[in-house]
Design a protein that fits this description.
Blueprint (H helix, E strand, L loop, with lengths): L2 H26 L1 H10 L3 E4 L1 H14 L4 E5 L6 H10 L2 E4 L2 H9 L7 E3 L6 H10 L3 E4 L2 H5 L9 E6 L18 H14 L2 E7 L8 H22 L5 E3 L15 H12 L7 E4 L3 H4 L3 E13 L2 E6 L8 H6 L6 E2 H5 L9 E6 L8 E8 L7 E4 L21 E3 L9 E2 L9 E2 L2
Parallel strand pairs: 1-16, 2-3, 2-9, 3-4, 4-5, 5-6, 6-7, 7-8, 8-9, 11-13
Antiparallel strand pairs: 1-10, 10-11, 10-15, 12-15, 13-14, 17-18
Helix pairs in contact: 3-4, 9-10
The chain binds pyridoxal-5'-phosphate.
């Protein structure tokens, strides 16, 4: 076995052990046990402290960058609250996300709107709310800002191909250098202010080098356009994309920051450098607890059917091709798992659709109806992309760490059906 393979296997084992220990510790807490006892399953356990810690890690790794949490990753009051208290900015893509922030009274100066294509009414509402930074990537969008107040600042979204990202956003949004120059020229004619540039390297991109290239190329383009047009830009938005270790190790946010720091730092005095991280702030902060509702032997072996699936919280499995780990409660509580007694199984979701399969070839202990399963790293693009297919209710979210308060309600938004008592 090569050294690299041995090291990879060791890193994989370390990750699985870490995730197992975290899941185990969560289930062992009074709050974790009480939440499951009160609400049953499926249940998402959200730990806002974890969000706060991730935010701190980002700030420590890139101290000259101002972070705007991409609300779309997990638009939950408790996440917004934790990041508001920590001093984070926010990135919204819709009027609904903006309302969530407004309800908390977050000052509009801390909010940027980064959807490159918006309804004119959404632009006017955001402007009326005080938002001043917007993203565009085409002339039609630029035209929507013709009558905007003079202090509105536009960022031109650039596209960088990222075939290795789980979600390569460049196929839908962003322009190359030629169109970017045209937009700058056009904005000078129409009187709109292009304040700088943004990009998104692709979500869940485990390639710090690609990220660094995108930063370098954007800085070079800004330099070139400033010279050609005699303008000066003041903002560079490096987007999101920081990866999360689901079922395999990835570069840490510190690894990514180490590549970006030497390229960005020389520009920190001149430019307002901002970022829009989503996944990296929330993925590890939420854990899904499900129950086995059925067991069957099929031609391809053992199947366990559980009460959440790809049309629900596990929407990330199909939409993003990410694969959160799944642990059985009985192996978490029983100390070191006895893998000899495990068997390969398929994990089916609760709907009657045959594509509702959470995982195949999963090594699990013998399970029976009612047994609990736990998936860590279920905070990003899970609850927010879940559907009510088959009439199933959305999985409630219980917020951890606030003591055993009962009767209080938390929700994705105040009227969201996912509301669960805080435990
Ligand atoms: C414009 C924009 N900003 C930020 C994000 C957050 O990205 P990530 O969750 O990869 O950090 C996204 C994700 O799709 C996005 O589209």
């Amino acid at each position: 076995m090569s050294q690299a393979t041995r090291a990879d296997r060791r890193a994989m084992r370390t990750l699985i052990e870490r995730r197992r220990a975290e899941a185990s510790a969560l289930l062992a807490t009074d709050a974790g046990r009480a939440a499951v006892a009160v609400h049953g399953t499926p249940l998402l356990l959200l730990d806002p402290d974890r969000v706060r810690r991730q935010y701190r890690r980002l700030c420590d790794a890139l101290p000259f960058v101002r972070f705007h949490y991409a609300v779309k990753a997990l638009a939950h009051d408790a996440v917004i609250g934790a990041l508001d208290d920590a001093g984070s900015g926010f990135d919204v893509a819709t009027a609904d996300e903006l309302s969530l922030l407004q309800r908390r009274g977050i000052d509009a100066s801390r909010i940027i709107h980064t959807h490159p294509v918006k309804k004119p009414s959404e632009i006017s509402e955001a402007i009326a709310a005080g938002v001043r930074t917007f993203v565009i990537d085409n002339e039609a969008e630029l035209g929507k800002f013709a009558d905007a107040p003079p202090d509105v600042r536009l960022l031109v979204r650039l596209a960088y191909r990222s075939p290795h990202a789980k979600s390569d956003l460049s196929s839908k949004f962003g322009v190359g250098p030629f169109e970017a120059a045209n937009l700058v020229a056009r904005a000078r004619l129409t009187g709109s202010r292009i304040a700088g540039f943004s990009f998104h390297v692709g979500s869940q991109l485990d390639d710090p080098g690609r990220f660094a290239h995108a930063v370098g190329d954007t800085l070079a383009l800004m330099d070139d356009l400033e010279r050609r047009f005699g303008v000066s830009f003041d903002t560079l938005d490096i987007g999101g994309g920081f990866p999360v270790a689901y079922d395999a190790p990835t570069s840490s946010l510190e690894d990514v920051a180490e590549r970006l720091r030497p390229i960005l730092e020389p520009h920190a005095a001149r430019l307002d450098i901002i970022a829009e991280p989503g996944r990296v702030l929330v993925a590890e902060a939420m854990t899904l607890v499900t129950s086995v509702v059925g067991v069957a032997e099929r031609d391809d072996g053992r199947w366990y059917y559980i009460d959440d699936g790809v049309y629900g919280s596990y929407s990330n499995v199909v939409a993003e091709d990410v694969h959160p780990l799944v642990f059985a409660e009985r192996e978490l509580l029983g100390g070191t798992p006895d893998e000899a007694s495990h068997r390969w199984a398929t994990l089916g979701g609760p709907t009657c659709d045959s594509s509702d399969v959470v995982a195949r070839e999963l090594l699990l202990p013998e399970l029976a109806v009612g047994d609990l399963l736990v998936s860590p790293t279920m905070g990003a693009y899970t609850a927010v992309t879940a559907t009510r297919f088959n009439g199933r209710a959305l999985t409630p979210i219980a917020v951890m760490g606030r003591g055993l308060t009962t009767g209080e309600v938390t929700a994705i938004g105040a009227s969201d059906p996912r509301a669960a008592s805080i435990v």
